[in-house]
Amino acid sequence: MPVIAFANSKGGSGKTTSALLIACELAEKTAVTIIDADPRHPVSKWATPKEGKTPPPKNLTVVRNAGEQTIIEEIEAAAARDPFVIVDLEGVGSKLNAYAMSQADLVVIPMKEQQQDAEAALDTIREVTNVSKVRRAELPFSILFTQTKPVAKSRTARFIASQFRDNPRIDTFNVELHERDAFSAIYTMGGSVRALDPAQTNGIDRAIENITGVVAELVAKLRANAGAAQDDKKGRAA
Ligand SMILES: Nc1ncnc2c1ncn2[C@@H]1O[C@H](COP(=O)(O)OP(=O)(O)OP(=O)(O)O)[C@@H](O)[C@H]1O
Ligand SMILES: [Mg+2]
Predict the structure, then answer these.
(1) Residue ranges with strand state E in the chain
(2) Which residues form ligand 1's pocket by a CB distance below 6 Å?
(3) Which of 65, 84, 108, 145 could form a disulfide with 37 if both were Cys (CB 3.0 to 4.6 A apart)?
(4) Structure confidence by residue, pLDDT tens digits, 184-211
(5) CA 107 → CA 8, 19, 86, 206, distances in Å?
(6) For the chain, what is the radius of gyration of the CA atoms?
(7) Considering only CA atoms, which of 171, 174, 211, 176 is closest in space to residue 22?
């Protein structure tokens, strides 16, 4: 049921990669739909069968969005069918993105620890706030740092991350999605990180551990938000 949209108006901030990795990991246990709502359709390209390429996990349905007019229906249909719906958005502010976010339970904002990504993440937070106002219900969001170095972070990277982590009005994932070959290899090899061949790609175990940590935190956030929404409803009814 929960709909999780991945948004950041900066190109290359890691939206598609984190959306795909999370969708595949969730699909290990349950049915998931990923809606490919970027007009360049990177998720559909990843899923397109090709000789020597691994197909998507069997529990994962890929829906290729047909445009802003159908996005809400596509999300509704997927949410009625599957326990998780992931929406990959393009790196611009658009009506399509606003419509998709209006249907979301959580917006994940992936960003690199870089100035331009940080500025775009702040713009995206403003968009999320506007969507909350339009739908008259708070739309939770969380920053996910992506393509980070597991060790020996630069001072700039630490400074940028701390500006978000230390801001009480901005929720952040504690777990970061590290920069790993295994995470970009899925585009060439198809399938999930778990399906990669250890003879061809390094660090698969660490990559799986990393993505498992991100998914555990995501699920905890969804549970906490659902609990808070219930309390809010009860409070208003009392
Ligand atoms: N955690 C990661 N580890 C290694 N490579 C990564 C990681 N995240 C992203 N990349 C690589 O960085 C590039 C950009 O990432 P991605 O396509 O996920 O960004 P995006 O925000 O979806 O971009 P766009 O706005 O163009 O849709 C891709 O080539 C991808 O392979
Ligand atoms: Mg993308």
Answers:
(1) 3-6, 32-37, 60-64, 84-89, 106-111, 141-148, 177-178
(2) 11-17, 38, 90-91, 146-147, 177, 179-180, 183-184, 187
(3) 65
(4) 999 999 999 999 999 999 999 999 999 9
(5) 10, 11, 10, 26
(6) 17
(7) 211
Asked if 191 contacts 56 with a C-beta cutoff of 8 angstroms, the reply is yes
Q: Which single residue is written with the structure tokens 């739909």?
A: 33
* pTM beyond 0.90: yes
Domains of the chain in start order, with CATH, are: 3-237 (3.40.50.300)
What is the residue-averaged pLDDT of the chain? 96
pLDDT tens for each residue of 137-163: 999 999 999 999 988 899 999 999 999
Residue 238: pLDDT band by 50, 70, 90 thresholds?
low
- Which of 31, 101, 95 shows the shortest CA–CA distance to 67? 95
pLDDT at site 155: 96
Q: Alpha-carbon distance 88 to 14, whole Å? A: 10
Q: Per the structure block, which two tokens stand in for 172?
A: 């952040």
* pLDDT above 70: residue 169: yes
Q: Which two tokens stand for residue 129?
A: 């706030």
Residues 6+ apart with CB under 8 A from 182: 193, 196, 201, 202, 203, 204, 207
Q: Tell me: pLDDT of 232 over 90.
A: no
Which atom of ligand 1 approaches the CA of 146 most closely? 1
- Best mutation site among 24, 46, 184, 211 for ligand 1, i.e. most ligand atoms within 8 A of its Cβ? 184
Could you tell me what percent of the chain has a pLDDT over 90? 92
Instruction: Provide the 8-state DSSP code for 65.
Output: -
